[in-house]
Specification:
This protein is α+β, with helices and mostly antiparallel strands. It is built from ten helices and nine strands. Helix 6 runs antiparallel to helix 7 and helix 6 packs parallel to helix 8.
Length: 357
């Protein structure tokens, strides 16, 4: 599995831009100069017409710098949900501004700590005026202060469905959540009879969310690989420079072994993440399995490598002055996002017809 020359050029362009623009300031140039917000959006809706492999490259680079930008929540989850819904009217209305970065979307999906569609308990009832009224509480919504498109998963008589709810609609309340990982904003949405507009077919939300979950896992896995790779780079550089007992600590065999093990984890995770991206582009039927593998492998690899970064940096690794703690916190938060590794291994086992333990 190899990326194309154009995708490697995309990587160089994104990395160069992120060195010049830090944090939230990178959103506008990333969207305008590279078209990052619409990489996987078809050209007919104003996007670049790329695929999951392009998103993989972008997310790896964002992961390296622990970028706070809303690419995962907006460009992957929200845009992906609209496309998967098959609702041409909604796509034509909402995707162009999302693809240009003029709008930012959020997908309110998880409830009670679960991203499974079966866990959705929010309800949508048809009102006398023909509009739907959505009631329920949504957790772990990937947040951005300027988000202006909100999609909500709720249950109707036909099953789980997707609704567009205005962010300032009466009965819709957003509360920012304080998280361990301060580089990824999250919010809690409470809906109390908020007016909603049906997206796609009533009762088709479970299929839509399954597709979005897999695309989200693939993109998140790429981000985890980029972050883990950066952790390893920082640790190798420190091991070369830090002197103990008259020699660099990287010259000690025990340290070499730990760095070698971390390298193997990073490269194994990269293979798993690329496998999910290639499946998303070329073999959709294989995506659920590939996404489950990628989410499990990459989550655990990033957690181990981030932990080694702190351990091998010694005292400075646990200070606020060093970035090690930021990567460790991102590893913890990303590992739980869309479900813990054990949940995806169980999903993988079920898909293979095996009994999960």
């Amino acid at each position: 599995m190899r990326l194309t020359e154009e995708q490697e050029e995309l990587r160089s362009a994104v990395r160069s831009l992120l060195t010049r623009h830090e944090g939230a300031a990178a959103w506008e140039p990333l969207a305008e100069q590279i078209g990052a917000a619409g990489l996987a959006v078809p050209e007919e809706y104003g996007g670049a017409g790329g695929g999951a492999r392009d998103v993989h490259v972008l997310m790896e680079e964002l992961g390296r710098g622990l970028s706070p930008l809303p690419l995962l929540g907006s460009a992957v989850l929200t845009a992906g949900a609209l496309l998967a819904s098959g609702d041409k009217e909604a796509c034509g209305r909402l995707l162009p501004p999302l693809a240009e970065g003029r709008s930012v979307g959020a997908l309110a999906w998880a409830e009670r700590g679960s991203w499974d569609a079966a866990a959705v308990r929010a309800e949508a009832l048809p009102g006398p005026d023909g509009a739907w009224r959505v009631t329920g509480t949504k957790e772990y919504v990937l947040d951005w202060p300027g988000a202006d498109v909100l999609l909500v998963a709720a249950r109707t008589a036909a099953g789980v469905s997707l609704f567009e709810v205005a962010v300032d609609a009466p009965g819709a309340h957003r509360t920012p959540v304080v998280t361990m990982d301060a580089t990824r904003n999250q919010a809690r949405w409470v809906l109390d009879g908020a007016e909603g507009r049906l997206i796609g077919v009533d009762g088709d939300g479970e299929r839509t969310l399954a597709r979005v979950r897999d695309l989200g896992c693939a993109a998140l896995a790429a981000e985890q690989v980029g972050a883990a790779e950066r952790c390893l780079e920082l640790t190798v550089a420190y091991a070369r420079d830090r002197v103990q007992f008259g020699r660099p600590i990287g010259s000690f065999q025990a340290v070499k072994h730990r760095l070698a093990d971390a390298y193997v984890l990073v490269e194994s995770a990269r293979s798993a993440a690329l496998g999910a991206a290639f499946a998303a582009d070329g073999d959709p039927a294989a995506l659920p399995r590939a996404a489950a593998v990628a989410k499990s492998v990459c989550s655990e690899a990033f957690s181990v490598v981030a932990g080694e970064t702190i351990q091998l940096h010694g005292g400075i690794g646990i200070t606020w002055e060093h970035d090690a703690h930021r990567y460790f916190k991102r590893a913890h938060g990303a590992g739980e996002l869309f479900g813990a590794p054990a949940r995806h291994r169980a999903r993988l086992a079920a898909g293979l017809g095996l009994t999960s333990h």
